[in-house]
Amino acid sequence: MITAKKIGNKIKLLRENLGLSQSDLAKKMNFSRGTITYIEAGKRDLETLELIRFSKIFNIDPASFLRDEEPAKISSKKITNQQDFLFSSQKLKNLILYILEKCGGKPNVGETVLYKLLYFCDFDSYEINGSPITGMNYVKLQFGPVPRAKEYNSTVNTMINNNELKIITQKYHRMIQKRYIALKESDKSILDEKEKNIINEIILKYSDMSARGIEIFVHGDAPWIETDNKEIINYNLVFNRVPPYSHNDHDADFMQAGQSDALKDLGPISKEEHDYYSSL
Prior knowledge:
The chain is mainly alpha-helical. Helices cover 51% and strands 9% of the residues.
């Protein structure tokens, strides 16, 4: 059973993982330091909106506070902008080829649009399925998220050397555009059905946008907004998304989890209560 003590212990461990003092966390929450002390000790109950505010500070799913699990399971990794997902060069290669098959012929789909499509594919997959498609890191730059060069360039250069991909430059609307040309088909077996569904939805929603249009659009997405310039974007920031970027109502999930937990705590109804309600 989840208790105030367990929630307080989770908050303490998450706070320490971020290297925050009780005073630091109190300022972020607009609480007194003494209030944080009471919360972490399990001596003060928290309202739903307060737990949601804590979840935003810690970049975690709000519902994780209400899951009866050991705190280490949500705080065993230091919460930083660096992600620990296993990067798959094969997934990235086939994701690029798949996107190019579907929309690479559109005149607006140059490198800028491709970068944003890759970003949305990975971050939407993490929000919906709990894991990104490629595991690649993305960096916040002025004009939106871009793949981290260490992972991206290695894969793309290998594709070029293997005659799987060609990159050309051309003039497009008085600008120089880099275009990717697929020289082979993607291996559809590398991407599972859930991933392909997400990719297809991303292509449908965003592949007709101009480079400038998709840059402006991505500037409204919480992961980009809440990351410092030139820093790696934390995948957990998808839980701070709002429409039209979010795919799940995380606050509603949190409320539902809390209601479910409360019902479990009620236990079976007594005969006295049953007779009372029957007489109403």
